Amino acid sequence: MSRQAPPRVLTVAGSDSGGGAGVQADLKAMLALGVHGMSVVTAVTAQNSLGVQGAWELPVEAVRAQYRSVVDDIGVQAVKTGMLASAELVEAVADLLAGTDAPVVVDPVGVSKHGDALLAASALDSVRTVLLPVATVATPNLDEVAALTGVCVESEDDLPRAADAVLALGPRWALIKGGHLAGDAVDLLTDGTATHWLRAPRYDNRHTHGTGCTLASAVAAELAKGADVPEAVATAKAYVTGAIAAGFPLGGGIGPVDHAWERRRPGG
Ligand SMILES: Nc1ncnc2c1ncn2[C@@H]1O[C@H](COP(=O)(O)OP(=O)(O)O)[C@@H](O)[C@H]1O
Ligand SMILES: Cc1ncc(COP(=O)(O)O)c(N)n1
């Protein structure tokens, strides 16, 4: 007797050879949260704990073909986007996503934790004008907020202004990640009407490679399972917080979060 398929979630993102961020992090988070993860690879990076040693974009045709293969046969209950590399890819992906009814989580990935560029400066305008308008939830970090809106966040008090500036670009919800501030790890979720502060203890752990990818994928997984946006974000925040607390050293630099932290707990 065959069982019913779990909810299906698609990541449209770059590959991280080191396995800590990008498509690899996305698929691990999706597995941990009980959905079937699928991928459209947009770019391949040679990457490890020390940095990004090289990056190669895939042709637009290859990105479109992967998307069609997945969506036309298997179907998706949620989509997450990550590294899109160039204006051409941002526009092609936004065009594909404009045709889906599934919720779309856009993580507007700009630079890696090591400071390496993952998006061409010339693509920022396309992110603003065609990608963010198709997002159900946009999840920028503070550097991405500054690059996209010009708003500089220096403390928690600036988060509402940042969220308003991101919402003005068209996503239904903005989740502003305050992970780069000092103090508690505070994020702000709003649709312009409802406002939810998400507060977690800051873990003094430098092994945070892949935090943003993991959070956005967890939001997509929960949306695919039927949660509404505030519920999905609350569950995803708890999941990424546990993964950061359990982040481990790997190589000589910044190690990854532990996607399987719940299974490693006693009794998990
Ligand atoms: N040291 C930390 N301890 C706990 N939570 C953190 C820590 N660093 C980041 N976070 C949280 O991880 C999530 C990802 O945020 P962030 O690291 O800012 O994203 P990005 O990877 O895009 O730079 C957010 O929920 C943020 O608050
Ligand atoms: C392919 C790819 N996608 C996204 C990130 C961002 O993750 P982080 O901000 O943790 O470096 C990355 N480093 N590599």
Automatic annotation (TrEMBL):
Q: Name one GO biological process term.
A: thiamine diphosphate biosynthetic process
Q: Cite the CDD domains for this sequence.
A: HMPP_kinase
Any Gene Ontology CC annotation = cytosol
What catalytic activity does the UniProt entry give for this protein? 4-amino-5-hydroxymethyl-2-methylpyrimidine + ATP = 4-amino-2-methyl-5-(phosphooxymethyl)pyrimidine + ADP + H(+); 4-amino-2-methyl-5-(phosphooxymethyl)pyrimidine + ATP = 4-amino-2-methyl-5-(diphosphooxymethyl)pyrimidine + ADP
**Annotated ranges, domain Pyridoxamine kinase/Phosphomethylpyrimidine kinase:** 16-258
Q: Does the keyword Cell wall biogenesis/degradation apply?
A: no
By its UniProt entry, which Gene3D superfamilies does this protein fall under?
A: 3.40.1190.20
Pfam families registered for this protein in UniProt = Phos_pyr_kin
Pathway the protein acts in: Cofactor biosynthesis; thiamine diphosphate biosynthesis; 4-amino-2-methyl-5-diphosphomethylpyrimidine from 5-amino-1-(5-phospho-D-ribosyl)imidazole: step 3/3
Q: Does the keyword Acyltransferase apply?
A: no
Q: Which InterPro entries does the entry mention?
A: HMP/HMP-P_kinase_dom, PM/HMP-P_kinase-1, Ribokinase-like
Residue ranges for the region (Disordered) are: 1-20
Q: Which UniProt keywords apply?
A: ATP-binding, Kinase, Nucleotide-binding, Thiamine biosynthesis, Transferase
Which Gene Ontology molecular function entries are recorded, alphabetically? ATP binding; hydroxymethylpyrimidine kinase activity; phosphomethylpyrimidine kinase activity
Q: What NCBIfam families would the database entry show?
A: HMP-P_kinase (TIGR00097)
Q: PANTHER family, from UniProt?
A: HYDROXYMETHYLPYRIMIDINE_PHOSPHOMETHYLPYRIMIDINE KINASE THI20-RELATED, PHOSPHOMETHYLPYRIMIDINE KINASE
Q: What does this protein do?
A: Catalyzes the phosphorylation of hydroxymethylpyrimidine phosphate (HMP-P) to HMP-PP, and of HMP to HMP-P.
Q: What is this protein called?
A: Bifunctional hydroxymethylpyrimidine kinase/phosphomethylpyrimidine kinase
Please name the taxonomic classification of the source: Bacteria, Bacillati, Actinomycetota, Actinomycetes, Kitasatosporales
